[in-house]
């Protein structure tokens, strides 16, 4: 396809579109899990901590899988990992419709679903996008990451309607079918190329000469990614701590907010809609933070702004006893949450380079999503069962977010890259 003046559209933008749609179905399916918590607990007579543990297992295996898929995306075209992941996660989601015991749920939704999700999640998709851009990296990653919010926004009301009318099992079956269609179809068409240099192109669609900002010429193979030097750098662990906390709060809210709102006598439809609002402002946040990161001297300040917004939203959630306050909390929390998936790969590429982005992001994903995200729903459900209320859990999340905000501002830059 060509533009009006005869110039071909840079393939990197096709990668952005593919990543956006693929992440929409992957994360939309997972982020609306809160719609299923109360119906599953009531139908199967499980505690809420037992149900929410399913999400914890999913993000744990999602994080573990990201270590391997991150290294793969530095070597092969992402189409194959995306196709395999969509098939595997769809199988796990569909098999969840047959569960009767908690261990079966943890095996289908957690182990199978989480492993599949890792194969076509942010590590694969945004690492692929990041390899095609340098000067426009923030905008490109921010645009592709919009898919997380779009998926949540579209699937939350759809799943809520299906669950309300036909039950939670029908809701999971519907999501599995959509995942196969979107994941396999777009993975095989738009995600079939790796680095621009391997196809005679340059990052950002530059016509010739050194790739802007990195001094690379078209053609050379990517260096073999090495993880040990990255793990020995304190900056990696600062980013891991800050975003581990952010993902912990993110998953805790997405899994438990609907049930929390119902406990506070807020209408069921309004409670479900609050998750959709997180998706709406998350979409805006991902684009905004990506756009802003391209325009500031050091992206850590953009990351700090996102964490502050999440903390503000969590504070409002503690006060939410009406639908209006719940919606205000969702708007602010979702906007700040949008910074996570955009700024994490941006900071990694900025500090460590794009050629090892998949390797670094895979390990980061395990630490943040696998451990931090896994603890969020599990600990929140445990504190609810212990105290009969979500109040203490939200205070814990708020304190952790404030600590992460202070920590991110200590992140130093490599002098050569800063120059």
How do the strands and helices of this protein lay out in sequence?
Blueprint: H1 11-31, H2 34-44, H3 48-73, H4 79-96, H5 102-119, H6 122-130, H7 137-166, H8 168-190, H9 228-231, H10 234-263, H11 268-293, H12 300-319, H13 323-352, H14 357-387, H15 391-408, H16 415-418
Helix pairs in contact: 1-6, 1-7, 1-8, 2-3, 2-10, 3-5, 3-6, 3-14, 4-5, 4-8, 6-7, 6-13, 6-14, 7-8, 7-11, 7-13, 10-11, 10-13, 10-14, 10-15, 11-13, 12-13, 12-15, 14-15
Structure description:
This protein is mostly helical. The chain has one domain (11-195, 225-412): Growth Hormone, Chain: A. The protein contains 16 helices and no strands. The longest helix has 31 residues, at 357-387. The radius of gyration is 20 Å and the shape is globular. Mean pLDDT is 81; it is low at 1-6, 209-222 and 415-419.
Question: What is this entry, summarized?
Answer:
This protein has about 425 residues and is mainly alpha-helical.
- Approximately how much helix is present in the residues? over 70%
Radius of gyration: 20 Å
> CATH class, anyone?
Mainly Alpha
CATH superfamily: MFS general substrate transporter like domains
Return the structural class.
Answer: mainly alpha
What is the distance, rounded to the nearest whole angstrom, between the alpha carbons of the first and last residues? 37 Å
- What is the CATH architecture term? Up-down Bundle
What is the count of β-strands? 0
Q: Could you give a short account of the major beta sheet? A: none
